[in-house]
Amino acid sequence: MRTVPVFDARRQLGNIGKELIKAIDKVMSGGRFILGENVLEFEEKFASYLGVKYAVGVASGTDALSLSLTAAGVSSGDEVIMPANSYPTAFSVTTIGAIPKLVDVNPETFNIDPDKIEKAISGKTKAIIAVHLYGQAADLNKIAPHALKHGLKIIEDCAQAHGAQIRFGHNGWRRTGTVGDAGCYSFYPTKNLSCLGDGGMVVTNNTDIYRKVRLLRMYGEEKRYKSTVLGRNSRLDELQAAVLLVKLKYLNRWNERRREIASLYKVKIQNAKLNKRIVVPGEAEYARHVYHLYAVRSKKRDKLKSYLERKGIGTGIHYPKPIHLQPSFKYLGYKKGDFPESERACLEELSLPCFPELTDGEVEYVCSEINKFFPEGKSND
Ligand SMILES: Cc1ncc(COP(=O)(O)O)c(C=O)c1O
Fold first, then answer.
1. Average pLDDT, the chain
2. Which of 24, 190, 254, 295 is 20 to 30 Å from 245 at the Cα level?
3. What is the CATH number of the domain that holds 274?
4. Would you say residue 30 has pLDDT above 90?
């Protein structure tokens, strides 16, 4: 039977394997593995790619977020506004003892609904995390005025949005991560820009945040063995930075291919769309989407997922449960029904295979099976 994986890292590694091995070899023969020339060079190149002053390599996307929050002045007991569906983001808030203050999402973009932010702000609120979910920017044009009005920091969660762009105010197009007080990246192996393990990056134009994150990522050390603030160990390592330096050169090309795949899906998923039983992702007028995930929605999601599985097609669900319905977040005191759009998204979202090495033939096969599942003119309710 034909199979199409939802993601396959090995295909990318096959294409650039020799370059990667050369880079890894160089690090091994150099003998320096922590905070050496590769991390420094990658920080510089990534900052320049994004068009931002500073970048600091850290151990993961979660750490990038929690260190940025701390550097921005958020501490234990403070409230942080974030979307109710972005499951991985929440742990960066709880890790520092802060409280996630959840807000429902816009059903078209799956990103935080800016019109619902005001109601969630209290005297304890210190920051808003704008998550750019699935590769499309949250609408910072509508989020920023709330932050300005209440003196809140904006931390951008760009873990799924490497290279994505936003048209912000009169400043034109900018890369995500460069608009708020800090931008936070993950280089987890499935990401648009990924390493061979865990890794992350904080980017910022704010010199104070930059200095603090640098201190916090290594024991709070101003210089070796002189610790001035209580930091921790959260460093991007040399091997991962060397891998990322190789891959950064391909990021734009890979994102273009993701956009091509998205266009193909949009054109080819016909029957189902006509019957309005599957909704394909759109691109907001202020955003340039990089399709980290190709997230469709359908009321028949679970049946469609099983059908595709039987046809050898892998899919994902991001995410099956909103944060407030996870047992570990019960203490926040929310209940079912509090965030209806996030809850509905969790029941309807399905991520189709979408990665640069996917062939047109594979995308067409996925589409033809979706069209068979939703035969034209008929309802399979
Ligand atoms: C939106 C979002 N935020 C944060 C994270 C956390 O990143 P990491 O897994 O590198 O800690 C992820 C990664 O899964 C993510 O997708």
1. 96
2. 295
3. 3.90.1150.10
4. yes
Pocket test for ligand 1, best of 186, 191, 292 (most atoms within 8 A of CB): 186
Residues with CB under 6 A from ligand 1: 60-62, 86, 88-89, 131, 157, 159-160, 186, 188, 198, 200
Atom of ligand 1 minimally distant from the CA of 132: 1
- How far is the centre of ligand 1, averaged over its atoms, from the C-alpha of 206 (Å)? 23
Q: What is the C-alpha separation between 365 and 167, in angstroms, rounded?
A: 35
Residue 4 lies in a domain: no
Q: How confident is the model at residue 267 (pLDDT cuts 50, 70, 90)?
A: very high
pTM over 0.85: yes
Q: How far is the CA of 293 from the centre of ligand 1 (A)?
A: 13
In 10 A of CB 377, how many CB atoms?
Answer: 8
Distance 195 CA to ligand 1 centre (A): 13
Using an 8 Å Cβ cutoff, are 143 and 290 in contact? no
Q: How confident is the model at residue 206, as a pLDDT?
A: 98
262/354 same-domain check: yes
276 and 244 part of one domain: no
pLDDT at 276 (0 to 100): 78
My answer on whether 74 and 156 are in the same domain is yes
Mean pLDDT (whole number) for 210-227: 97
Q: What is the mean pLDDT of residues 145-152?
A: 98
CB 139 within 8 A of CB 84: no
Residues 6+ apart with CB under 8 A from 6: 314, 315, 316, 351, 352, 353
